[in-house]
Amino acid sequence: MSTSTTKVTIDPLDIIGIDDLLTPEEKAVRSSVRQFASERIQPYVADWFERGVIDEPRVLAKELGSLGVLGMHLEGYGCAGMSATDYGLACLELEAVDSGIRSLVSVQGSLAMFAIWKWASEDVKQQWLPRMAAGEAIGCFGLTEPDHGSDPGSMRTRARRDGGDWIIDGRKMWITNGSIADVAVVWAQTDEGVRGFAVPTDTPGFSAPEIKHKMSLRASVTSELVLDGVRIPDAYAFPEVRGLKGPLSCLNEARYGIIWGALGAARSSLETALQYTKDREQFGKPLAGFQLTQQKLAEMNLEYTKGLLLALHLGRRKDAGTLQPAQVSVGKLNNVRASLEICRTARTMLGANGISLEFPIIRHMNNLESVLTYEGTVEMHTLVVGQTMTGLPAYR
Question: Where in the numbering of this chain does the Acyl-CoA dehydrogenase/oxidase C-terminal domain appear (predicted)?
Answer without folding.
Answer: 242-389
